[in-house]
Amino acid sequence: AVMGNVVPGWLLASAIDLQRLEPAIEQLAELDLVFPLEEKGTLRFKHGITREVVLDSLGRDQRQALHLEVAQIIEERFESTNRDTMLEALAYHYGETKEHQQAADYAEAAGDKAMAVSATDRARLQYHAALTALGKLGEDSVYDRWMGVSRKLAEACLYDAERSQTGIYERAIELSRTRDDRANLASGEYWLAYINYALGEAPAAKHHIDAALALAEELGDETQKTQSLASWGQIHGNACDYGAALPALEEAMSRQAPFKRKPRIAFAYAYSLACKGMILSDQGAFTEAFKCFDEADDLTRGAVHPTQGSIACMRSGAYLWQGRWEEAMD
Length: 330
Prior knowledge:
- This protein has helices at residues 9-15, 18-30, 48-56, 60-77, 87-95, 100-116, 120-137, 143-156, 166-178, 182-199, 202-219, 222-238, 242-256, 263-282, 286-300, 306-322, 325-329, and strands at residues 6-7, 34-36, 43-45.
- By secondary structure, the chain is mainly alpha-helical.
- It has a 3-stranded antiparallel β-sheet.
- β2 (34-36) and β3 form a beta hairpin.
- The longest helix is centred in the last third of the chain and has 20 residues, at 263-282.
């Protein structure tokens, strides 16, 4: 039970003779340390502190051995069935062992699963765990994999950046520059620019997006160039440099326009439209601004995606500037 706050009965039964434990479990319940859940044979610690005290009483090697045993039991139990339901548990248990490859594999898979349902907070947690495990294997030996997971993490951070994430992309830039890997260098510069943009750090964001755009042009990567142009416009718009921002946004959207109904492009295009609407609103061009918001809403209608929150936020700002309080609240 120390290995996880909730302990399925089948897991205990797989490892030991459950009947031999029943008197001890009853005593623990009487002492108010554990209690049963609705699912038969499933227990939970009454308080997380209890679990931590018991866990701290074990030596590191013993803890690692127990985590490995639990992970292997889970793998055996789900070998012939859908293991997706246990990805998070497997990532957690392997992450507490020296089996760093398995920890990275399961954490990345758990992150992918979370992203598939837009659970970006869970995805960030799992991708961070995968990068930590890969780092223990040595970034040099798993360079391509580390870079790939770092890009996945960046996409999970689009709507909730944290200052601690900048270190990951500074490291990505360092690693790619050492190898003269221009493609990954462009990606690292782009994501570091975007995270600084989300944090409101305009000078740093401008510096890195300039580097990303220059690298995209050098590489002749039109997709990366379009993405960098859009972010260049968004970053300069956020810094109120509207004369520079609007042409960049217009060029990026003209590149995306033929594909704007495709799901992935639709959200990027809609976000750029909303940013344009915000700029126009701040300049008092409300009629044109609301056309941008309306088209952005149309492109994302029927979906459940964080971009819709960004669009609604910018529309509400425009309503506030007009004194349309009720509509802004709605």
